[in-house]
Amino acid sequence: MYTIHILVLRLYKLECKKQRRAVDAILKASLPKLREKLLEALQAVLPIAAIVLVLCFTIAPVSPSILLCFLLGAAMIVVGIMFFTLGAEMSMTPMGERVGAVITKSRRLPVVLGIGFLLGFLITISEPDLQVLANQVPSIPNRTLILSVAAGVGLFLVFAFLRMLIGIALPKLLVLFYGIIFVLAAFVPKEFLAVAFDSGGVTTGPMTVPFIMALGVGVSAIRGDRHAADDSFGLVAMCSVGPILAVLLLGIVFRASDSTYIPPVLPEVSDSVELWQLFHVSLPTYLKEIAGSLLPIIVMFGVFQAAALHLDKRTLSRIAVGLAYTYVGLVLFLTGANVGFMPAGNYLGQVLAGQSFRWIIIPIGMLIGYFIVKAEPAVYVLNKQVEEVTDGAISARAMGTALSAGVSISVGLAMVRVLTGISILWFLIPGYAVAIGIAFVVPKLFTAIAFDAGGVASGPMTATFLLPLAQGACAAVGGNIVTDAFGVVAMVAMTPLITVQLMGLAAQLKTRKARPAQPAAVGAAAFADWPDDAIIEL
Fold it and tell me: Which of 63, 74, 359, 413 is the most buried (most CB within 10 A)?
């Protein structure tokens, strides 16, 4: 018996040693990719940092404490994006694809729909963006808002699965659901209106997007027809509708409290130790928060692994390393964004809108919006997947340009709202009408990608910098924070719908022009050596 015990122990130690070697090999292999991601993160964040520095040294002076917090936050965001983007590639994407394929293989519709609802609910509760928004909404308790939004995402993920399995055209569903949304908007208190549309944007953030988009690829692969790749997009679009409807219904049945908006605390430090202490104090909060966010996803994947997936140890080791990268990346990103970027955004908004030429915040907001979307972690995931699914027909660069242009316009319009107090419906109704109208004339792949892009563009950078910027500006002009400042996330989610589809329309027109020109060109080449009189005779 003792001999058997020793043998088992040795075998266990040998297995652990092999596992450590496998993990070490994965870590070593990921180092070149980390360097690549670091360069991408620097390219994304440095333009924003440069714009803020120019403003701070010219027309919008800030205290050294706020500036130093911003710079340290920017450094943490760079490192966070580096780890997160690689981690999402190694873990979230393969997990989502495999789970999506497994749940549809059963061919049992109740099972597919039930698991779909559970996945949507759990992943949304895990979404850090939603927590950031909930903390800034004064009139609705955090738990009430989060659970309502999570239920909305779960329900509409079920609708998205049904759409993919049945093959229903996305534009028709969007007309139906957004029609219901704007009808309900007429009966909802104005305090809920902007928050409802903002909630649709923040739910599709760095935690949700990689998993849900990968689920789409997994589910569509089961169909196997020629339109399956087109339908692999659109899940994020449907999941963005659910929270809007959920919060609008919440606004009808829930009596909001009279709590007042509390602006972020502006940091004041006297030395470098106090500066680091600001971030050090917040780190445990985000370590715990992100651990709680990832745990439901890990547990769910563990259940699927034990029941159906049965992946090999090397694949599991790679996913585990990717999850560790994702965890570290999100903790650093959110700490840097919340502690460094949020106070800076709020104060800059106050300073810019408090000047005699307050209109300057419109072009400055547009400039910041153009570059800030490049720093969104989930945008990278979307652009990469679009490039892969379309075999390079839609490049990540083209997608990035279309998103930047859309977000730039949306931030400019949001700042117009802040300065004038115009209702958000005056922008959203025509915007969505144009977006859905274009959807009937462009290839459906572009429509699905566009509505996914709208959800992806409004991520944590929007919630932690652009929203505080709007809140600070609104406070400076004496506006209503809840009705005028909130809504910037919704605006950011709307305009990419139009710009990405216009890119698709341009590509379609270019293709149509090239088709008739090709035979003519071939014919001209065939008769190039003939004399003119022979051609005329012919």
Answer: 413
